[in-house]
Description:
Layout: H1 2-51, H2 61-66, H3 68-81, E1 84-93, E2 98-106, E3 117-124, E4 132-140, E5 143-148, E6 154-163, E7 169-178, E8 185-187
Antiparallel strand pairs: 1-2, 1-8, 2-5, 3-4, 3-6, 4-5, 6-7
Amino acid sequence: MDQQNHQSHTANEDPDKSRATRSAWLWGSVVVAFLILQLVIGGLAYNLATGDPSVAVVPDYHERAINWDDELARRKRSDQLGWKSAFQWGEISSVARGREFAIEVIDSDDNAVTGGNASVRFYHHARGVDVATMALQELSPGKYGAELPMVKPGLWDVELSLLRGPDEAYWRQETIDIGGDTATDAEE
Length: 188
């Protein structure tokens, strides 16, 4: 009878031990699952924060800030020329998926500024990391232009650089609001 009692006692202990073991595995798994979930959510948050091109610092922003005195001197030299300019925007071209851009530049005596080497640097405010630079051709005396891939409506930052000789460097920066397919003029 002792042996039978001992077997039933052992049989009764096994369900309690297995229940405790299952419970330990269950709660341990829950804790590990929450840790893994936290890592996954953190990884997704990091990916969203660093992978979104609309959340970006404009390239060369820090470098330009460090050289702010040089930037101010460049602007002052440009202003001393007394040149004036007017941006002109055309409709979106359905063939090339771009927008006609032109700028007329006149000097302080109201003469066309000809023979310059012009380029434009631009980016959409929603995509500050996508900065593009294009050379402009002289279309007529004092008028420089090109077709720019600026089809998205909204705010665009446009920076014109016009060099004519070693002492004549004109610079102009403008934030332009382009809405839909309408032409926008901004005059300085």
